[in-house]
Each structure stands twice: as C-alpha cells, then as structure tokens.
Design brief:
The chain is α/β, with parallel strands linked by helices. The protein has a domain of about 220 residues: 3-Layer(aba) Sandwich (Rossmann fold), CATH 3.40.50.1100. About 35% of the residues lie in helices and about 20% in strands. Helix 2 packs across helix 3, helix 5 packs across helix 7 and helix 11 crosses helix 12. The longest helix has 16 residues.
Length: about 425
C-alpha cells in the first residue's frame, strides 16, 4: 500500500494554541494546566479509502500516522435487527470490534484496542528509531500492542498486573521484540502504570502516552468514523463502557470533525458511558457534579477492582477532569454515566449472543446493559439513532478455531519496587 504521511498540526484544548508536532508530542510545553492536545488535520472532509486490505487506514485522513503497518483490521458497523427488536429500537447500529468473519470483522485479538495499536505504532517515526515502546495495560491493550509490534518488528515492553496475564493469548508465537514485565499478584492497573513510568525514566524507553497520545485516541475514533459513514449521519447516542474514558473522548473528537466536515449533520451524539459496580469512580464524580475524581482509598479501589467482571474497566487514574477529558466530553454532549452490576452484565452478554449470534467481552456486556437501562427509563426512544460500541467480541469463537500461545513475564516485581530494581532488570532484557 502506498501512503503519504497525514498532514496536521496540534491544538491545545485549554488555550487554543496551534503548534507543530515534534514527532511524539503528548503535551503542550507552553500550557501550565492539564490539557489534551488534538490534531487539526489538513483535510477537513474525510475521504474513506476503498482498499479492503487497508483496515483502519481507510480513515488515514484523520489519523496522525507516518506509515501503514502490516495486517491492519478495522471496526465493522451494521444495523441490528434482532437485538433492536428486543429493545424496541428501530435505528440501533452496532459497531463490532472483534472476530466475526461473517461480518468481515477480523481483529485476531478480539478487541478494539487493535485500533489504538495500529494507529500509535504507525505514528512512530525516525526520531523514535531504536527506542523501546512502553505500554501499561490491564490486558486487552497489551494483547493488541503485542500482536501489532510482533508482526511489524517494533520493540515493545509491556507492563501488566500479574493477575491479568491470562489475557495475553495469541494466534501465533510472538517475536522476541516483545517483552513482558508484571507487578505481583494482588496489584492492579495503577500499579502497572507506575511500573511503566519507572521504565520510561530509563534511557531508550519511550512512553506510549496513554490517553494523551493523539494516535491512540484517533485510532479508537475509527469506531465513530465507521458508524457515521455507514449510517450517513452522526448518531443521536453513543454507548460505551469505560475504564479510562479514552474511547468516548475519541468518539466526541471524531464527532466534532464530522460537524466541521459538513456532510453528516451538525449535532453531537450524547455520550452514555458506563462503569462496572462496585468500581465506579467516574460515575461517582459525575453524579456529584465534580470535575475532580472523589477521594478513593487505594486498598478499597483494589478490592473493588477485584470484584468486577470487567477488569479492563478498572483504571484509577483516568483522563477525566483535564481540559478535553471525559468530564468536558460529557458536559458538551449532554451525556451521562451509568453503573452496571456483574449480574446485569452477565444477563446482557447472554442476550446479545442469543439475539446477534456472537459472544462479547464483559466490558461490552456492561455497555449492552447500560443501553437496556437507558431504554427502560425512557431516555432512549424507539426512533433515536443509537451507536452501540461493542469493544470486544468473538473470543469464544476464535478460541474454538485456533491454537493459542501465551506470553510469560521476564520478571515479576513486588509492589514496593524501586527505579533501581526496574533499571537492573531491564538492563538484562534483549529486544
């Protein structure tokens, strides 16, 4: 595939300052308050590519990338019939991310985190050559980055809680360019983030950047691009379960670009995001009308995170209150945060599989249950155009059809690790 690098500048949400991307810019050095930066693309109208092998790179006009990687996948949007009828909705559109060949959904990690990885890794340029990309994850993100980096020869260090490494399964053995380190049993995603921060303080290791990486957000934004271009207009509602809220922020940002595009309507989809009880820090803050997250004891947070059926939704430090974060996205779109129990999620997963014919992840099941709540309380009406972002699915099907391989950690760190401990262990790794 031939490709011309996408042209864009960066704009700071808090101040509006427009400036150039130096290659891996995550923040505006001239902004003294926490703020997202956004790409401002040269192409105001999105031209969707027609090459079926291009995957998410069909949306390259609105991706901050320098190249195309091998084996890309993409989200698939279709109009629901059976689940829609069950819920009493006439315009329910499902954006499916996962493994469902009959729908042409071919994410072999079964998660929309592939959209992050294919975009972030395609942003890497000459100035990052020779550096090791560092990614912290509760599971699905690690699996996606491992696959993409292994397929494309990109050095990668994964930081994952030991209790979550069951999520690191693959369709084939990984390249030696991918290494895994973990935090001990009983730790959580926040501990893995702390481990990644210590790794990034060492020369030669590059922070992926999380929500502040424009390529991560716009990669996730391809779900909104898929739905909007399929429907022919932006939806009235966008539903997604959230751990960090990055996917919902990405959908909001893509929506704003579609408004500027001028061909898909001038309205903003209302963001209805959901969390898994009892781990609901963003739900609690939103219901309290607070831009800042409420105090949350670390031990209680770990306990609550251990109880939820969707551990990928257990981020203790989400990009919620900063300028351009989830709080702003919810306010701007008249959105809301819903809370879903494990039992409600399990029932929703069974309903989706029975009606649509494919298994879905627990986080996606939380999302389906949230949609059921919003329909039941009358906030979503029968003729509303609804986008349901199924962020992962088809793993049961994929496991039946493939032999799987695992990734084991090179080292397991205690929770009281030091930077010296990390430096010593990383010095022994060969990428």
């Amino acid at each position: 595939m031939t490709f011309t690098p996408t042209k864009y500048a960066l704009r700071t949400v808090a101040t509006g300052r427009l400036f150039a991307d130096e290659g891996w810019t995550l923040d505006d050095p001239q902004c003294d308050v926490p703020s997202m930066v956004r790409p401002v693309y040269e192409k105001k109208q999105l031209t969707v590519g027609t090459d079926p092998d291009a995957g998410l790179y069909r949306y390259a006009d609105w991706l901050p990338i320098r190249r195309m990687l091998q084996h890309p996948s993409e989200p698939v949007t279709y109009k629901s019939e059976r689940l829609a009828a069950k819920l009493g909705l006439r315009q329910l559109y499902i954006t499916f991310n996962g493994w469902w060949p009959e729908r042409n959904a071919r994410m072999t990690t079964c998660s929309f985190k592939e959209m992050e990885a294919y975009s972030v890794c395609a942003r890497l340029g000459a100035s990052q050559s020779g550096q090791v990309l560092v990614v912290a994850s509760a599971g699905n993100t690690a699996r996606a980055f491992a696959k993409v980096c292994s397929d494309n020869g990109i050095p990668l260090l994964l930081c994952v809680p030991q209790d979550n490494i069951g999520a690191l399964w693959f369709e084939k053995p990984l390249s030696d360019c991918v290494k895994l380190i973990t935090t001990e049993t009983g730790s959580d995603y926040f501990d893995a983030i702390r481990l990644s921060n210590e790794a990034c303080a060492i020369e030669g290791f590059l922070p992926e950047g999380g929500a502040k990486n424009i390529a991560r957000r716009d990669g996730m934004g391809t779900t909104m691009m898929s739905a909007t271009t399929f429907i022919g207009r932006t939806p009235d509602f966008y539903f997604q379960a959230v751990g960090s809220g990055t996917g919902a922020i990405a959908a909001w940002e893509a929506n704003l670009r579609f408004i500027a595009d001028g061909r898909y309507g001038s309205h903003k989809a209302r963001l209805f995001v959901s969390q898994n009880k009892p781990f609901v820090p963003m739900y609690d803050a939103w219901k309290a009308g607070s831009r800042a997250l409420l105090p949350y004891d670390a031990d209680q947070a770990r306990k609550d995170a251990a109880e939820i059926c969707a551990p990928v939704l257990s981020n203790r430090k989400p990009p919620y209150g900063l300028a351009g974060g989830l709080f702003d996205a919810l306010q701007d779109t008249q959105g809301d945060v819903l809370a879903v129990s494990n039992a409600e999620a399990a029932a929703a997963a069974a309903l989706f599989e029975a009606e649509e014919g494919i298994d879905i992840y627990s986080a996606a099941a939380v999302n389906v249950a949230a949609l059921q709540q919003a329909v039941a309380d009358g906030r979503v009406r029968p003729d509303d155009v609804v986008m349901l972002n199924i962020t992962g699915g088809g793993e049961k099907r994929f496991r039946q059809e493939h032999t799987l391989y695992s990734l084991q950690p090179s080292h397991v760190f205690p929770m009281d690790f030091t930077r010296e401990d990390v430096a010593r262990q990383l010095a022994a790794l060969k990428f």
